[in-house]
């Protein structure tokens, strides 16, 4: 009797369950968003420790701390964990928290599936991390796992890796379906697609990318599984297969994947810069079209990762031109952000600092990307530290900084408390210096001829490697400030108002801070001040 | 500092681009027409990027400085301008076209593989390169010659640490040389920055590339595609000789062949085989099976106490000669000569307390004839 009464009661006031079951069984978009973000932060630190292991080994020439096998395992796991465990789940977490609130919905469209798509991840990553303890060690063939190194010559743990990738893919697809269903079906009456905030737009496009390419990844790992265990020869030349086929299939997934990791970042920054410039976003419509163009182009440029595999001349030219073309919509976005700042009334709170750093450093990553697009020059850059510098500039001060910016921007909304601004700024400046000291010298190392993924190097690479290692430790340890700031924000921190920032507009800021457990139980009035398109 | 000074000294003696001073921040111009046009292309694009950066970040920092709330800036209300947005789509397109033209020209040049005067097949192995001069009787393996003691920091590192090999690729200056690249196991990538040649060596494929080096010299590079545990220890050294010196080198190779054949005829004692075998083992086997034959659990089997080492020698010999398909164990019959094969098998069967006993050079020679 008692339990029935209790359940009736809890249905009445719609509050969260108590204890661990709240988190295990939750179908609430905010709880799931929080779970995703905490999971991502955990993975960020695990992947970060691996990065520091790599950097510590590379501090000086010679083998000091770890042996080459373990070095290869670290580079592989670092890449996989950061891509699939840290960056992607962080954006899904932000989507879960913010999209229903931004479109005026009570929750995600498919809440039970939402619970599933999160809870698959801890299992997938436990499986992946467990390979570190297996005989023969963890996957050691790089995050791109090129065949035949990953099929014929890999440790037995590769099978666990394949199943872990399958599970991550399932999780991502379910998350993407949920995002699309929420955005298309649950917008408040009166909100047209071209009224939506850019964060919602970028996620809508990202979700379509995810649905398009995650099955390709699943396909390629399944082909590997068949080659390893069932006697097929998809990638084995001796059996009539083709090792280059692996790369075509992998990069047909892999190139859109890099945009999956940056498009939501564009959305975040497009929310933050107008807020702190106190001015509407410049060129809303062209931002939307640019995002869509980048997404479409991402499907026809995959072979620029393969300029050295021996493509025919026509192929090289085609992929060179299409890759260069991506600079146009990306440029439009950068120009629009700068035009938004121009003649604004700017202040520099922590989220704005991270966003400004994003614009500058992401653009530097874009420049090196343009250089890499030039096929004849790419023969010199390919698979060197120049590439490492390039993609870390777009992924760390790009994706990761935008996630940090988003966390600071929305923390007061999520928790109802302000974070410590001074500590936030300290975190920003240490991260900013750390990132540049780590990754800028890698451009020089690559141009001077240091290949990537080597555990030991020739003497002329010694000095810049030492500098990069200092930077990496500075960046890594300064992230602890962020953790401390978040915890103290949740526990204490000044009360935050509903609007939080002077320049904020949009539906999410009409809710109290923290918002009620079910965001909008009644569809809110959607009027012109809340429209993103001005 | 000591390293710096020595590098500068050596830079004067040889033109060895990878061994220039520390803190090198840019691509090298290289030693071929192609490498110089790649360098120029690289610089042009770099300067265009710098120019764009100055303009875009200039406007941004102008705004950050002048349009601050703390300076009393009031926000303007514009948020659209069709002609501005069209302009900043068109202008980048024009810039891109101006980059694409020289890039395409260089690329087309690089793909012109006609009228080569010498063909060399390069095969990637875990973790060494094989160079076969087509239509000539020259065929050898080239592997890292840096002593393991330097890698493990027990010895001072040498000038060309990790960029030195036992037998460099030798080519004549001023001649167009075509490379045919393939691989025996996984994907490798043959890269020498001074020649601006980087091409993947893929099992089951033959890729083409070419070079023509103007001046004699020593040019160094490394494998550029992750190929397993010793990926970082797979250097490439190209020795470019004047055509006369090159001819002398070719003649020398023929006489070396004769010496090798004579040594295979000689009676080898077990003690001699053990000494030679240890050297071969260090160069060809220790990377996987480790110096003490202990192997790496789950990856490379141990040789110490292995039944294969003490049992019937035929099975052991077969594994060394023909490899084990589906594993990293290579077929050494093509890589080592008969004496080296007999020596290393004898060494493995008798070292570290193994009780397998010796095999003879004749035994191996018989098996290879079959």
Automatic annotation (TrEMBL), chain A:
Catalytic activity, as annotated: 4 Fe(II)-[cytochrome c] + O2 + 8 H(+)(in) = 4 Fe(III)-[cytochrome c] + 2 H2O + 4 H(+)(out)
UniProt domain Cytochrome oxidase subunit I profile: residue ranges: 23-527
EC top class, as a word: translocase
PROSITE patterns: COX1, COX1_CUB
Transmembrane segments: 35-56, 76-97, 118-138, 158-186, 198-225, 245-269, 281-305, 317-339, 351-375, 387-411, 426-446, 466-487
GO molecular function: cytochrome-c oxidase activity; heme binding; metal ion binding; oxidoreductase activity
Membrane topology: Multi-pass membrane protein
Gene Ontology CC entries for this record: plasma membrane; respiratory chain complex IV
Top-level taxon of origin: Bacteria
Cited InterPro entries: Cyt_c_oxase-like_su1_dom (IPR023616), Cyt_c_oxase-like_su1_sf (IPR036927), Cyt_C_Oxase_1 (IPR000883), Cyt_c_Oxase_su1_BS (IPR023615), Cyt_c_oxase_su1_dom (IPR033944), Cyt_c_oxidase_su1_bac (IPR014241)
Gene3D superfamilies reported in the protein's UniProt record: Cytochrome c oxidase-like, subunit I domain
Keywords tagged on the record: Cell membrane, Copper, Electron transport, Heme, Iron, Membrane, Metal-binding, Oxidoreductase, Respiratory chain, Translocase, Transmembrane, Transmembrane helix, Transport
Main location: membrane
EC number: 7.1.1.9
BP GO annotations: electron transport coupled proton transport; oxidative phosphorylation; respiratory electron transport chain
Function in brief: Cytochrome c oxidase is the component of the respiratory chain that catalyzes the reduction of oxygen to water. Subunits 1-3 form the functional core of the enzyme complex. CO I is the catalytic subunit of the enzyme. Electrons originating in cytochrome c are transferred via the copper A center of subunit 2 and heme A of subunit 1 to the bimetallic center formed by heme A3 and copper B.
Family the entry assigns: Belongs to the heme-copper respiratory oxidase family.
The protein, known as: Cytochrome c oxidase subunit 1
Automatic annotation (TrEMBL), chain B:
Cofactor, how bound (note): Binds a copper A center.
Catalytic activity line of the entry: 4 Fe(II)-[cytochrome c] + O2 + 8 H(+)(in) = 4 Fe(III)-[cytochrome c] + 2 H2O + 4 H(+)(out)
Native source organism of the sequence: Amphritea japonica ATCC BAA-1530
A family per Pfam: COX2_TM
Primary gene name: coxB
Domain Cytochrome c per the UniProt entry, residue ranges: 272-352
Protein known as: Cytochrome c oxidase subunit 2
PROSITE patterns, alphabetized: COX2, COX2_CUA, COX2_TM, CYTC
Biological role: Subunits I and II form the functional core of the enzyme complex. Electrons originating in cytochrome c are transferred via heme a and Cu(A) to the binuclear center formed by heme a3 and Cu(B).
Domain annotation Cytochrome oxidase subunit II copper A binding: ranges: 115-252
Family stated for the protein in its record: Belongs to the cytochrome c oxidase subunit 2 family.
């Amino acid at each position: 009797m008692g339990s029935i009464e209790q359940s009736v009661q809890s249905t009445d006031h719609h509050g969260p369950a108590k204890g661990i079951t709240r988190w295990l069984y939750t179908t609430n978009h905010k709880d799931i968003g929080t779970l995703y973000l905490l999971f991502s932060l955990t993975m960020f630190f695990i992947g970060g420790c691996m990065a520091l292991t790599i950097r510590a080994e590379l501090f000086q020439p010679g083998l000091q701390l770890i042996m080459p096998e373990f070095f290869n395992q670290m580079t592989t796991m670092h890449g996989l964990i950061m891509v699939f465990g840290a960056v992607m789940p962080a954006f899904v977490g932000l989507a879960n928290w913010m999209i229903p609130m931004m479109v005026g919905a009570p929750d995600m469209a498919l809440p039970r599936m939402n619970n599933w798509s999160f809870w698959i991840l801890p299992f997938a990553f436990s499986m992946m991390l467990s390979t570190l303890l297996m005989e023969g060690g963890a996957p050691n063939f790089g995050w791109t796992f090129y065949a035949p190194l990953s099929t014929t010559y890999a440790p037995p743990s590769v099978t666990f890796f394949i199943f872990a990738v399958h599970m991550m893919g399932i999780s991502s697809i379910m998350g993407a379906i949920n995002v699309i269903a929420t955005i298309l079906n649950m917008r408040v009456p009166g909100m047209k697609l071209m009224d939506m905030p850019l964060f919602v737009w970028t996620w809508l496009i990202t979700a379509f990318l995810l649905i398009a390419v995650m099955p390709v990844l699943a396909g390629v790992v399944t082909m590997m599984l068949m080659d390893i265990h069932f006697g097929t020869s998809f990638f084995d030349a001796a059996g009539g297969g083709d090792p280059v086929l692996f790369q075509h299939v992998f990069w047909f997934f892999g190139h859109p994947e890099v945009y999956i990791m940056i498009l939501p970042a564009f959305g975040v920054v497009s929310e933050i810069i107008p807020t702190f410039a106190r001015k509407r976003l410049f060129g809303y419509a062209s931002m939307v079209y640019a995002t869509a163009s980048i997404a479409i182009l991402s499907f026809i440029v995959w072979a620029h990762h393969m300029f050295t595999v021996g493509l025919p001349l026509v192929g090289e030219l085609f992929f060179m031109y299409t890759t260069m073309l991506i600079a146009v919509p990306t440029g439009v976005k950068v120009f629009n952000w700068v035009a938004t700042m121009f003649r604004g009334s700017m202040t520099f709170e922590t989220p704005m600092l991270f966003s400004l750093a994003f614009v500058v450093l992401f653009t530097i990553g874009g420049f090196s990307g343009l250089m890499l697009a030039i096929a004849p020059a790419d023969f010199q850059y390919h698979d060197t530290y120049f590439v490492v510098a390039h993609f870390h500039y777009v992924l760390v001060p790009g994706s990761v900084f935008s996630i940090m910016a988003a966390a600071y921007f929305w923390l007061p909304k999520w928790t109802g408390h302000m974070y410590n601004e001074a500590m936030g700024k300290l975190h920003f400046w240490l991260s900013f210096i750390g990132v540049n000291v780590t990754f800028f010298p890698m451009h020089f190392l690559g141009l001077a001829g240091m290949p990537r993924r080597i555990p030991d190097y020739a003497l002329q690479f010694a000095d810049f490697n030492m500098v990069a290692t200092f930077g990496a430790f500075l960046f890594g340890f300064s992230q602890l400030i962020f953790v401390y700031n978040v915890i103290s924000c949740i526990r204490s921190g000044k009360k935050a108002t509903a609007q939080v920032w002077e320049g904020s507009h949009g539906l999410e800021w009409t809710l109290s801070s923290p918002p009620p457990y079910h965001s909008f139980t009644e569809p809110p009035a959607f009027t012109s001040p809340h429209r993103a398109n001005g | 500092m000591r390293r710096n000074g020595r590098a500068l000294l050596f830079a004067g003696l040889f033109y060895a681009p990878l061994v220039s001073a520390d803190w090198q921040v840019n691509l090298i111009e290289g030693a071929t027409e192609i490498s110089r046009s790649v360098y120029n292309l690289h610089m042009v694009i770099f300067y265009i990027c710098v120019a764009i950066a100055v303009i875009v970040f200039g406007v941004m920092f102008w705004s950050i400085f002048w349009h601050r709330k703390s300076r009393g800036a009031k926000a303007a209300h514009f948020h659209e301008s069709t002609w501005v947005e069209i302009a900043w789509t068109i202008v980048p397109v024009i810039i891109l076209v101006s980059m694409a033209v020289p890039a395409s020209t260089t690329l087309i040049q690089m793909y012109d593989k006609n009228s080569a005067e010498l063909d060399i097949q390069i095969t990637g192995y875990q973790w060494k390169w094989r160079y076969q001069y087509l239509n000539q009787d020259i065929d050898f393996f080239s592997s890292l010659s840096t002593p393991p003691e330097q890698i493990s920091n027990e010895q001072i590192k040498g000038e060309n640490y990790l960029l030195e090999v036992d037998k460099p690729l030798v080519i004549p200056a001023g001649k167009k040389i075509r490379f045919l690249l393939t691989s025996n196991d996984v994907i490798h990538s043959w890269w020498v920055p001074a020649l601006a040649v980087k091409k993947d060596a893929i099992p089951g494929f033959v890729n083409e590339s070419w070079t023509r080096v103007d001046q004699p010299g020593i040019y160094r590079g490394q494998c550029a595609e992750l190929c397993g545990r010793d990926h970082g220890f797979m250097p490439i050294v190209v020795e470019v000789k004047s055509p006369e010196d090159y001819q002398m080198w070719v003649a020398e190779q023929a006489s070396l062949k004769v010496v090798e054949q004579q040594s295979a005829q000689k009676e080898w004692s077990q003690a001699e085989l053990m000494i030679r075998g240890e050297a071969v083992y260090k160069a060809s086997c220790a990377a996987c099976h480790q110096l003490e034959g202990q192997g790496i659990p789950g990856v490379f089997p141990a040789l110490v106490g292995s039944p294969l080492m003490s049992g019937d020698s035929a099975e052991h010999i077969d594994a060394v000669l023909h490899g084990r398909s589906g594993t990293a164990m290579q077929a050494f019959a093509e890589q080592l000569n008969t004496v080296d094969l007999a020596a290393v098998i004898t060494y493995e069967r008798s070292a570290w307390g193994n009780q397998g006993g010796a095999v003879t050079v004749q035994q191996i020679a018989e098996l290879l004839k079959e």
